[in-house]
TrEMBL record:
This is Zinc transporter 9. Pfam families: Cation_efflux (PF01545). The chain crosses the membrane at residues 12-36, 42-61. Its main location: membrane. It comes from the Eukaryota.
Length: 186
């Protein structure tokens, strides 16, 4: 019963318990019918109940890791964390959790503190500065200034989201075993 896929153990044990339960029930009902003594029927019920209880306890015991999640090796967590920390837009990584989901799949979760200046610079590199300067020069009222700032502020936030998406894709690309990545911005 060393399968990493919990469903294999569940199916095998449930089917075995079902067959044994039918055998116990049929035997005890037959004995009750032949002897006329209802004690055998009662013992059969207790036997089937005990069998189901033992199987369920065994399944809980053997599948606890799959139910609760098992951490991956510290070296692998370190490698994933170092990959993120080596990116120029990442200032720090906090609250890292990496879980083995079985079948060679890993879930990685971390809180990421980004260098906002790097992300803002990434946004600005895609802008036409002459056009932006012209927009600024046309600002005459507080309402126009607010509209200008909201437009570019929203775009910077979108760039921040795109940066997180890029980091998640990069982590998956370099580590094929990582199937789920959840990076949260601090």
């Amino acid at each position: 019963m060393e399968s990493r896929d919990p469903s294999t153990n569940v199916i095998l044990l449930e089917d075995t318990a079902a067959v044994l339960g039918v055998i116990i029930a049929a035997t005890c009902m037959g004995l009750t019918s032949v002897t006329g003594n209802p004690l055998y029927d009662s013992l059969g019920s207790l036997g089937v109940g005990t069998l189901l209880g033992v199987v369920s306890a065994f399944l809980i015991y053997t599948n606890t890791e799959a139910l609760l999640g098992r951490s991956i090796q510290p070296e692998q967590v370190q490698r994933l964390t170092e990959l993120l920390e080596s990116d120029p837009s990442v200032r720090a990584i906090h609250d890292v959790k990496a879980t083995d989901m079985g079948l060679g799949k890993v879930r990685f979760k971390a809180e990421v503190d980004l260098y906002v200046l790097v992300v803002t610079r990434s946004y600005l590199e895609k802008q036409d500065f002459d056009h932006m300067l012209q927009e600024i020069q046309e600002v005459k009222t507080p309402e126009q200034l607010e509209a200008f700032m909201l437009k570019h502020g929203e775009n910077i936030i979108d760039t921040l989201g795109a940066e997180v998406d890029r980091l998640e894709k990069e982590l998956k690309k370099r580590n094929p075993e990582v199937r789920h990545v959840d990076l949260e911005i601090l």
